[in-house]
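User: I'm writing a tutorial on reading structure tokens. Could you give me a worked example: one chain, its sequence, then its tokens, then a sentence or two explaining what the tokens reveal?
Assistant: Sure. Here is the example chain.
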Amino acid sequence: MLDKANALAPEIVRLRREIHAHPELAFQEVRTSQLVAETLREIGGMDIRTGIGKTGVVGQLGTGDGPTIGIRADMDALPIDEATGLPFASQNPGVMHACGHDAHTAILLGVAHLLKQEFAAGNLRGNVRFLFQPAEEAQDAEGLSGAPRMINDGALDGVDHVIALHVDSGLPVGKITIREGASSAAVDTFRSWITGSGGHGAYPHLGTDPLWMLLPVMQALNGVVARRINPMHPAVVSLGVVRGGTASNVIPAEVYLEGTLRSFDPQVREQLLVEVERAFAVARAFGGDYRLEIERGYPAGHNDATVSDWISATITDLIGADAIDRSRTGMGAEDFAYMTQKAPGAMFMLGAAVDDGVSRGHHTPIFDIDERALPIGAAILAETARRYLAGKAG
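And here are its predicted structure tokens:
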């Protein structure tokens, strides 16, 4: 399978570059979806549905009977101005594929090519459902991202297991991270306003100053993980926005704060909400008040042990056991977590670092990957699915 994927590499690279040059934001992936649907039609032999989860595409290949495995790729880009200087850099100002979803989509199209060959040879029984998902990076007005939107439209109905990958721009090509259990963190966003009366900067004693209250509130927030959460359970409380004031001699009436909460354990997730509320309530001890809004985000992702073992066995046989990196997951969030709540599944991280000594972090203007990783990812996904449908998984 790796040899077949390497032979297909020029086509996968071409698709990745075409998608990279024309990035589209969440739920706006019209051009990308058209390219995906057209490519699936050219591959042939499958049922194709468009407009799933608003702008998603689902293709199904198989015999109709037997088990069904889903393979997911996300398609959306980010609101970032690209600064890579690549010849196929974004042609859409202010929009960039800065997280590798262009690679994910191209890889899954490559998988469709590879598995079409396997079905044509009569080696498999069952079905593969290709899930090209919109909007992993953002939610719509109703608070739903692409994965739950696709699930609501029946994209995972009848799927027995589901797998996916994510490129990692910090992991060398040829290395893959796969682990059972926690694979991504739950994420919630908080927005709060510390309020006071405001006043004249020359007479601070005549009013209540929310900027003065900010320090004890921030100390309380920073102490949540250190002193209120069981140290055996990872958690994060991070401030991303602090905004207040308009002039040097004016004490503002409010200060705005915004931040993120990350956790793996459901009980810790709920405790974080309680502790953040308590931290902002400190403002009342100083004569002020607060308003707090919580936006619930993605749940924690979970890699099923059995599916993780299937992927690990495939990696070992294709590339070697030394390719597997089992280091602990970070606190990034992924809406693939919704899919693994619907069907047992797993996601692995595909090493794709550009070997030039430059840190090309995800969600940055200079994000890039080494395209030699693309056929590796396609081979792992295709071979895992092939073994599953051939009754040889694990």
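What the tokens reveal: The chain is about 35% helix and 25% strand. The chain has a mean pLDDT of 97.
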